[in-house]
Amino acid sequence: MDDPDKVAAYNRAGREDGVMAPVYLYHAAQVSEVVKPGDSVIDLGCGPATQLGMVARFNPEVSFTGVDLSEEMLSRARDNVAEKQLGNVRFEHCDITSLDFLADNSVDAVMSTVVLHHLPDVQALEKVFAEVKRVLKPGGGLYLVDFGHLKSEKSIEYFAYQYADRQAELFTCDYLYSLRAAFQKDDFRWL
Question: Does 122 fall in a domain?
Answer without folding.
Answer: yes
